[in-house]
Specification:
- It comes from Jannaschia donghaensis.
- Its cofactor is Fe(2+).
- Keywords: Dioxygenase, Iron, Metal-binding, Oxidoreductase.
- With 231 residues, the chain is mostly beta strands.
- Helices cover 12% and strands 35% of the residues.
- The protein has two helices and 14 strands.
- The strands form three sheets. An eight-stranded antiparallel sheet has the order 1-2-3-12-9-14-7-4, covered by helices on one side.
- The longest helix is centred in the N-terminal third of the chain and has 17 residues.
- The chain is globular and about 40 Å long.
- The chain binds a DNA duplex (8 and 4 nucleotides) through strand 8 and strand 13.
Length: 231
DNA sequence: TAGTGTCT
DNA sequence: CCGG
């Protein structure tokens, strides 16, 4: 992979004090820098190890209620990732197309989005509407995600927030139109990324997983959680 | 057109 | 049947 690494650049700060921390008076608040890659906001090391572990526990509960599926594209090509969802709407990819659906293909309702995950949205995008969908993507060591745009949400003024858990992933950010130059960055366990504003409709994808770079999960691979407002 | 794919 |  010879795509250029993004140079970290501090462009702002948020307050970090969510999640039961003793931050009522602001005494324990810490500033969390983000960096900006083509308008995509990257929060490196957003989650502590303990927060990541709690979140994995919650993800396992989601997967028990709504088992992972290996989707196929409308042309019948299997995706390399396995997917499930939480929330009022779940992402479905099958021969019928791409869409948000109110239930798992089994017919069971999607489980609710756990508080541990919603807390990240509230901290990073406090002005946004509540998230309606949490897509759970399981990347095995060889899984990838082709370049695409998140364009199936009714209100793209609402952000998309991505949480990385487990092994490192090489994430690529492109342009509004397909093609052109791109920038790549490694996402590590506990990192949070937000597509909003001018970056909301940029092409993006995952080129590679680096197995064995995290000890968070039992098996090599990566979990990505993507929070969205759908309606 | 596909493309949340596959290939050089 | 493209280009990153």
């Amino acid at each position: 992979m010879r795509a250029g690494r993004a140079v970290p650049r501090i462009t702002g700060y948020i307050r970090r004090g969510f999640w039961g921390r003793k931050d009522v008076k602001g005494t324990n608040l810490t500033e969390l820098p983000w960096r900006d890659v083509r308008g995509v906001r990257v929060f490196d090391g957003f989650l502590t190890s303990a927060q990541q572990a709690d979140m994995v526990t919650d993800v396992r509960a989601i997967v028990r209620a709504a088992p992972l599926i290996q989707p196929v594209t409308p042309r019948g090509q299997p995706l390399s990732v396995r997917m499930t969802s939480a929330g009022s709407h779940g992402w479905i990819t099958d021969r019928q197309g791409y869409r948000y659906a109110p239930a798992h293909p089994s017919g069971a309702a999607w489980p609710p989005i756990p508080e541990s995950i919603r807390a990240v949205w509230a901290a990073v995008a406090p002005q946004a509407r509540a998230p309606e969908s949490c897509l759970v993507n399981w990347y095995g060591p060889a899984a990838r995600m082709g370049m695409h745009v998140d364009r199936d949400e009714a209100d793209p003024s609402q952000p998309v927030i991505s949480i990385s858990l487990g092994d490192d992933a090489l994430f690529r950010i492109g342009n509004a139109a397909r093609g052109g130059t791109t920038e790549s960055l490694w996402l590590r366990s506990g990192d949070v990324l937000m597509l909003s504003g001018t970056a909301r409709l940029l092409h993006h994808g995952v080129d590679r997983i680096a197995p064995g770079t995290s000890t968070l999960l039992d098996a090599p691979g990566r979990i990505n959680l993507t929070l969205r407002v759908v309606t």
